[in-house]
């Protein structure tokens, strides 16, 4: 089959690097074959994730539309984490037939879906029903399997690291414990990487159950050796008293309705009570998904985008582009979404952090 027309869709939470990937897919598809006299592919942007396929909101993307967006955060196509074609809206209606009808009417030969766990799960279901899809893993959480890194993770870590850097001076001046709560859902990738990069004294991640006594011991130990402040970096997915996730809100129509946030306030008041050291909280929130992509994410996006077009041309549908040991490769989407990718407790990064005295609360 000659591939003439492809669609691009960005689903789930946005992140820096998405526009760089849209640019890479669109430019590679348009420029491919053009030099030999024939036309390149036509590219259709689907707006607001799967919502655009459900409601038929699309626009043609030409070179001029994707020019100048390499460094731009967010996604020019818009996104949504509420538009699941198999359970749409609060009534959870199956609108997958409409999605297939719109896909056919658009005369698309393939679709490139950029997304995290939720978007790729939906992509997988659509593939089972015959839709020709190729995936690009993106999420600041880095929790998609079968790839070393997802697009957007490095940029989120950069924002978080800068915040930790900036907190140091005020923590030290006021002799406080400063807790920086970071995103990441049920995994601790962002907190671990930013925590190590920012020199966090204590790092809490969901993968390592903590004991409040250990945290307090560390705060007191530091005070005794003249370090009258402590920086604690923690993931939003850390459980309170090792049992319960702290839920900020529920978004009913979302593939995963749970929105985490606020566990740091509970832990802060325990620390204050048990140590007597004033403890303050900063929840960085959506700032981590903002701003320009880092150079790493721009390069990753460009390589992922080019590889996605290669997969489309080779008709390797059901595959997701992936970074493995520095190589850009591909894996079945199914293998990437089978399990959430958690931080490996034997990882050299945890070992190195422990080596420099970082306390994980265990
Ligand atoms: O999955 C990305 C992410 O930013 C998570 O880290 C966070 O828990 C969640 O999305 C927040 O979602 P929303 O934008 O719906 O608040």
Describe it:
- With 362 residues, the protein is α/β, with parallel strands linked by helices.
- Helices cover 36% and strands 18% of the residues.
- α7 links the parallel β7 (202-204) and β8 (230-235).
- α5 (153-174) crosses α6 (189-197) and α7 packs across α8.
- The longest helix has 22 residues, at 153-174.
- The model has no long low-confidence stretch (mean pLDDT 96).
Number of strands: 13
Order of helices and strands: EHEHEHEHEHEHEHEEEHEHEEHH
Largest sheet data: 5 strands, mixed
**SS-derived structural category:** alpha/beta
Total helical elements: 11
What small ligands are held by the chains?
6-O-phosphono-beta-D-fructofuranose
Global outline: elongated
Question: Helicity level, as a percent range?
Answer: 25-40%
Instruction: Pick out the low-confidence regions.
Output: none
Cα Rg: 22 Å
Mean of residue pLDDT values: 96
Please give the order of strands in the largest beta sheet.
Answer: 3-2-1-4-5
End-to-end span in angstroms?
Answer: 56 Å
Tell me what portion of residues adopts beta-strand conformation: 15-25%
Which helices and strands occur, and which strands form pairs?
Elements: E1 5-10, H1 18-31, E2 42-46, H2 50-55, E3 58-61, H3 96-105, E4 110-115, H4 117-128, E5 133-137, H5 153-174, E6 177-182, H6 189-197, E7 202-204, H7 212-224, E8 230-235, E9 247-250, E10 258-260, H8 263-275, E11 279-283, H9 295-313, E12 319-324, E13 327-332, H10 333-337, H11 348-355
Parallel strand pairs: 1-2, 1-4, 4-5, 6-8, 6-11, 7-8
Antiparallel strand pairs: 2-3, 9-10, 12-13
